[in-house]
Structure formats: C-alpha cells, structure tokens
Amino acid sequence: MSFLSELFNIRTSKSVSDFSNSLFENQETDVLDLPQKVKTNYFKFDFEREINTTNNLNYFLFDHEIQLSNEQISSSENRINQDRENFLRISITPTFINLLHEEDFEFGYKTRSEEILIEQLKINALATRNWLNELFIKYFSDEVILIGILRIIGRFNEQTIFPQGQTMALAALSHKNDEIKELGIRAFEKWCSYESLSILKKIKVETTWLQDYVNQVIIDLKEELCHY
Q1: What values do phi and psi take at 113, rounded to 5?
Q2: Are 174 and 199 in contact (CB under 8 A)?
Q3: pLDDT for the residue numbered 73
Q4: What pLDDT is stored for residue 182 in this prediction?
Q5: What average pLDDT does the chain have?
Q6: Does residue 151 carry a pLDDT above 70?
Q7: What span, in angstroms and rounded, lies between the C-alpha atoms of 148 and 152?
Q8: Which is nearest to 58 in space by CA: 5, 20, 21, 22?
Q9: Which residues fall within 8 angstroms of residue 198, CB to CB, at 6 or more apart?
Q10: CA-CA distance, 27 to 16, in Å (whole number)?
Q11: How far is the C-alpha of 125 from the C-alpha of 24, rounded, in Å?
Q12: Where would I find the H helices in the chain?
C-alpha cells in the first residue's frame, strides 16, 4: 500500500490543508497516533509536491483508485469480448453460414439463423456485432451470405445492431448487386432515424428504379420524422 493510501486510511474527511495542518500543529500527539510505517515516512512527505491542490484528499485518492479500477475493468472486458469473438468464429460461424445458404427468408417468419444471432446478441452484443461485421467483410463476394445478413439486420431496431449494422448497410450500397443495394436501403428505411435520412440523401445509384426507391424513402422518412 502506498504512503498516500495509508494516510487515506487514517484521515479521509479533512482537506489536504486541514490534514497537513493537524499533523504539524501537534506533532507529539499525532505522531504517536500514526502507524509505525507512517511515522517512518512522516517527515519525508511533501504535501506541496505530492498534491499541489487544496482539494479534498479523499477525492484525490479515490480519483487514482477509480482510474486504476477502470483500466483493470477495461482490460478484463476486452479479454472477455475477444474470447467471445473467438468462440463465435470457431463454434458458430460454420452453422450460421450453412443456414444462410439454405434458408428462405419469408415475411413474418423467423429463421434459425436469425434466432442464433438474437441468442448471441443477448449473451454478448458487442462481440456478436463485431463478429457479424467481420463475416460481412469476409463474404462480401458471396451474394447469398450478404443477402441473408442484410435481411436479418434489417429486422432489428437501430440500437440493437448499432453501429456495425449501419456500417454493413452502407457498404451494401456500394455492391454491384442491386438486390443487395435494395436491402441496404430497406435497412435504413426500417431504422427510420435522422442518421438514416442523412445517409440516404447522399446516395446516388445508377439503376433508375433503385434511385426512385431511395427518393421515395427519403420523402417517407422526412414525413415520419416530422412527427417526433
């Protein structure tokens, strides 16, 4: 434990100035009350150098403890997410890809691939979104896989799949396949947000019917968002 931590354990309710004054006002009494390790370091400690502030000592020490704690938590969370992504790559990907190749997506019907994705999002949303985005990039030349993924994310609300879902939908708009582009547009239409509207306003596609669809979605989103 650091010298500061030991001091914190003794006095936490006084400010740095009050604490230092109380120590030096009555050295005989206070020194006797201090633990042995603190006595040893007592005259070596320089409050002006160590804490150049009049803020509460309690705040100073807790601030450093919180920073350490946050770093540890962040590191732990990163390991957990990485482990989960590895699990998804090894254990879930083969089944998920096979299902996307075999399943037919029908309105109002939840496919097994969609159920798997929902299950994994409940376990670890961040790792699952990262994994799905990774699959989208890896299989960008496989139109069947892309169509399946876009159909699924287009059924989710925006926050469930944010921000990786929006990245995938935007990437779909640059694909050579018009059906994939259409599914990207549908996803933004479903999410019906100002971000979706902003993106679609910038979209220009060569296929006439698809550009007409973009234009109509823009009109619809403007009308819908005006009610909020």
Answers
A1: -65, -40
A2: no
A3: 67
A4: 96
A5: 78
A6: yes
A7: 6
A8: 5
A9: none
A10: 17
A11: 55
A12: 3-10, 16-25, 27-33, 36-42, 47-50, 57-87, 93-102, 112-123, 125-138, 143-153, 158-161, 164-172, 178-191, 194-201, 208-225
Are 12 and 58 in contact by the 8 Å Cβ rule? The answer is yes
Q: Cα(172)–Cα(34) distance, rounded to whole angstroms?
A: 68
> 């994310």: which residue's tokens?
153
Among 158, 206, 218, smallest CA distance to 181 is for: 206
Q: What is the pTM of this model?
A: 0.68
Q: Report the amino acid identity of residue 105.
A: F
43, pLDDT greater than 90: no
Q: What is the maximum alpha-carbon separation in the chain?
A: 90
Q: What does the pLDDT look like over 163-220, one tens digit per residue?
A: 999 999 999 999 999 999 999 999 999 999 999 999 999 999 999 999 999 999 999 9
Placement of tokens 């925006």 in the chain? 158
